[in-house]
Design a protein that fits this description.
By secondary structure, this protein is an alpha/beta fold. It has one domain: Vaccinia Virus protein VP39 (Rossmann fold). Helices cover 39% and strands 26% of the residues. The protein has seven helices and nine strands; from the N terminus they run ααβαβαββααβαββββ. The strands form two sheets. The protein has a seven-stranded mixed sheet with strand order 3-2-1-4-5-9-6, with helices on both faces. Strands 7-8 form a two-stranded antiparallel ribbon. Strand 7 and strand 8 form a beta hairpin. Helix 1 runs parallel beside helix 4. It is globular. One of its GO terms (molecular function) is protein-lysine N-methyltransferase activity. Keywords: Cytoplasm, Methyltransferase, Nucleus, S-adenosyl-L-methionine, Transferase. Pfam families: Methyltransf_31.
Length: 210
């Protein structure tokens, strides 16, 4: 990938400072990455698998925390969101407060150099964070490897990892997560047609930690 400001902490700090101000002004939580259907897709999969409501869930790069709120509304109780941007966590705290979801845990944390307590989760979810890591102008390849290593520590053996990406194909993600993870399922995403060829603008996969 061509390096991009979308891979820098400075970009996300500035973006979430703006969204935080907007929320304080008009109560708008901001953009939902990949749209509401991406959250519905994740929640439906968890429900189909009959994942217990007390399972520990980690949202990697939680942003405004809206996914966690939707999970809480669906009955999930053990929810944690992390983001390396303090402004994102401030925003998600305000969204949590507005929704009355005080049991959602939120923390400023860099997933590439996680604290020791960031481990033992039943489920890890990523909507766009691995994409952003992949665009980092400073050693993106090394940081992708750090991400996979951190995921291996954060997720329990046999735990599920649900990733939504607009930068990576299924085959590429299988290669990126080949060490320590196996594919369980590809989730359906919207298709588009261009020049007579059909493709997907978004890839959504479920992995299980070996």
């Amino acid at each position: 990938f061509v390096p991009s400001v979308l891979g820098t902490r400075e970009h996300w700090d500035a973006a979430y400072e703006r969204e935080l101000q907007t929320f304080q002004d008009i109560g708008d939580a901001g953009e939902i990455w990949f749209g509401e259907e991406s959250m519905v897709r994740i929640i439906r999969w968890l429900e189909r698998q009959k994942v217990p409501l007390d399972s520990s869930v980690l949202d990697i790069g939680t942003g405004n925390g809206v996914l966690l709120v939707e999970l809480a509304k669906s009955g999930y109780m053990n929810l944690t969101g992390i983001d390396y941007s303090p402004s994102a966590i401030q925003l998600s705290e305000k969204v949590r407060e507005k929704e009355g979801m005080s049991h959602i845990k939120l923390k400023v944390e860099d997933f590439l150099s996680p604290s020791a307590e960031l481990s033992g989760f039943d489920i890890c979810i990523d909507k766009g964070t691995f994409d952003a890591v992949s665009l980092d102008p400073d050693n993106a390849v090394g940081k992708r490897q750090q991400y996979v290593s951190s995921l291996g520590r954060a997720l329990k053996p046999q735990g599920f990892f649900l990733i939504t990406s607009c930068n990576w194909t299924k085959e590429e993600l299988l290669n990126e997560f080949r060490e320590g993870f196996e594919i369980l399922e590809e989730l359906p995403t919207p298709k588009f047609c261009f020049g007579g060829r059909i493709g997907n603008s978004v890839t959504a996969l479920v992995f299980q930690r070996k």
